[in-house]
Amino acid sequence: MTQKxxxxxxxxxxxxxxxxxxxxxxAGLEEGLAAPALRDLPPRDRAFARxxxxxxxxxxGPIDRALDAKLSRPPPEAVRHILRLGVVQAFLLxxxxxxxxxTSVDLAASRRETRPFKGLxxxxxxxxxxxxxxxxxxxxxxxxxxxxxxxxxxxxxAAQAIAAEIAREPATDVTPRADADAADLAxxxxxxxxxxxxxxxxxxxxxxxxxxxxxxxxxxxxASAAIPARLTGAKAGETVLxxxxxxxxxxxxxxxxxxxxxxxxxxxARLKRLSExxxxxxLSAEVVCADAGAWEDERQFDAVLLDAPCSxxxxxxxxxxxxxxxxxxxxxxxxxxxxxxxxxxxxxxRPGGRLVYCVCSLEPEEGEAQVEAFLTRTPxxxxxxxxxxxGGAPDASLTPRGTLRVLPHHRAGGTDGFFIARLxxxxxxx
Length: 430
Ligand SMILES: C[S@@+](CC[C@H](N)C(=O)[O-])C[C@H]1O[C@@H](n2cnc3c(N)ncnc32)[C@H](O)[C@@H]1O
Known about the structure:
Largest sheet: 8 strands, mixed
Shape: globular
Order of helices and strands: HHHHHHHHHHHEHEEEHEHEHEEHHEHEEE
CATH superfamily of the largest domain: Vaccinia Virus protein VP39
Helix content: 40-55%
Bound molecules: S-adenosylmethionine
């Protein structure tokens, strides 16, 4: 049953601003979630605002289609946001339908720019109550241009299965600091064991209060995101360079494996989080704030991991805004940065050493095409094929080339989309 405080205007106004931020710029959702307007709300209001926005983003495609069928001309964006939140309340959250309409009308009335559209909000939402829309049709859950790309890259059936994951709220995956602690942690966190070992829990709420967090016995990391560090094969006595390392999930894994780790990222703010994460886990690494493509350092390493900046379309389960903030032109410009970083990463690998390249993107230009182009221009490297199940990867992700193309439906309950390749440098080191 919906609580009275959940229907408060402050929570709805915060949701309205958060939705506008999420859809107007890249990283707007992340920034909005950390902004004082939301942070300073009572916890229950904050949770309600967040739930409204996340459900709006997870169903944005079908919601907009349902609204467009009722609108004779496009309303101002702020009015559309109010309608989107109204649809979520009426059909996706446990709220009485009449309250969804009346609180949406109140929301429109509360701001000067949307006040003239009160009647429209009322009419459109009442119209939808008479013919409830279908809000989880995979054919409309992703923007058309992304769905077309996924069809071209992976086939129609896989594209539909990927899109179906957009509407599903993900569980939380965690990496144990020590493999031997996985069984105890599974009991403590009421978690399902996943290969790796990893754990998947349906718990909700602030992870900082969960057992074992403060002692650094585990950290939050999607099951797919935990695969690349394992594929480096890093072990005690080895040196590993982690490029584009912050906030540090992979650095923690490498350090926990006993390797001597150097972590490089160009964002000081994100590196601060990396250092805090290392400290909490009782692990250490050399932390360097630099552009990985221009970092002046002569060392070479036994293994290099490059987790390159990318469109992040594979992370839509926790960041559904990426689907709507991404533009086709982003993919080409990010591909340029990825190729520069891959060249820089290659130069840091000692002869005979390993290079793991990964991106949390579903777009082949950022994954397969990057690696093939790198191999063409850098003859001293070859693919080191990944074995079935290695690193805890789902079997369906292994490609004939020996790389991994993890798709969000490859694990029951979903997983982030990733491309991962392991290369080896010839002993001659050319
Ligand atoms: C996908 S995230 C890395 C996630 C991280 N590896 C982890 O496991 O927690 C990409 C990172 O690349 C960093 N980045 C982007 N361009 C960079 C560059 N030219 N040099 C160094 N870091 C860069 C960003 O600051 C961001 O932290």
